[in-house]
Amino acid sequence: MGKRTPADAAPAAAKSSAAKPGGAKLAAAGRLAEGGAGSASRAKAAGGKRGNGGEAEAERAVRAKAETELYAPVKRWLEARGYAVRGEVRGCDVVAVRDGEPWPVVVELKKRFNLSLFLQAVERRAMTPYVYVAAERSDRKNAFALSELRRLCGLLGVGLLTVKLYKRKPALVELHCEPAAPGEAGVFGAAGGPPKTPGRRTARVLDEFRERSGDYNAGGVTGRKLVTAYREKALRCAEALHTHGPLAPRQVRDLIASDMARAILARNVYGWFRRVSRGVYALTPAGERALGEFADVVAATTGAARE
């Protein structure tokens, strides 16, 4: 039996009436899951435009200023289908995992559909069959037509999502086509296809995903320090030294419940630790600053809220 894709969690009535995974009925189910864009709400909105300035203002679409603004709507869309979601996992904008399924779902985000987005998607197909591209839906005259985008995604074997942002009401996420099934490679053939079984690249992404305690990065973020699983563990080491003073690696290991403590202290990747005597480490000023910079992560991972 093949993997259930994000669309599989759509209402049964919508699925039974869909001719195929990328059909209009399924796209409609995706719209309703994200924020109520059914015919009834459209009619109500239309009436608001005629008689209620407040409702008309809420219906006004706005443009995304950054890729990160698309992350939350896409995350909610995936979570509604039973996925746990993390942003910026080993270079992937969005990674979603569902219990009992061997393949992750990857979504690459861009403000606009462009060549870079599709090249990223093709690269991700070397790791999982379930890759989607997502960008803001545009009504501009020079924007790509949805029919063109669907055709290109079919050639590449990737799925297609669009996001429309509104000033006050929830964003509209639409599913337009699904990625090719495992073992299929799109029209371009095997050279562009995914592996038939999960390999090392897939395992590395899943390991990073599972080692993180939460979702601290918005997909599509640039120019900011990412909270990786390694940084989380380093922060826990720093918190242990801040709370208890200089410690031996085995003591830190016991406090944070991780066998990586010794290696983290010895390698000192971030410059947060210093050895004060043989086998004893203390926190540096840089480490103290990091605990303040990542106070939300520290509180979430250790339960120790900082001032």
Task: Quickly describe the structure.
With 307 residues, the protein is of the alpha+beta class. It is 43% helix and 16% strand. The model is unreliable at 10-33 and 35-50 (pLDDT under 50).
Give a verbal description of the structure.
There is one protein chain. By secondary structure, the protein is of the alpha+beta class. The chain contains 13 helices and nine strands. It has helices at 12-17, 24-35, 39-51, 53-59, 68-79, 115-124, 146-156, 200-211, 229-244, 249-256, 261-267, 285-293, 295-302, and strands at 61-62, 84-89, 92-97, 105-110, 131-136, 159-166, 172-177, 273-277, 280-283. A hairpin with a 5-residue loop joins β6 (159-166) and β7. The longest helix has 16 residues, at 229-244. Residues 10-33 and 35-50 have low confidence and may be disordered.
List the helices and strands and how they pair.
Layout: H1 12-17, H2 24-35, H3 39-51, H4 53-59, E1 61-62, H5 68-79, E2 84-89, E3 92-97, E4 105-110, H6 115-124, E5 131-136, H7 146-156, E6 159-166, E7 172-177, H8 200-211, H9 229-244, H10 249-256, H11 261-267, E8 273-277, E9 280-283, H12 285-293, H13 295-302
Parallel strand pairs: 4-5, 5-6
Antiparallel strand pairs: 1-6, 2-3, 3-4, 6-7, 8-9
Helix pairs in contact: 3-4, 9-10, 9-12, 9-13
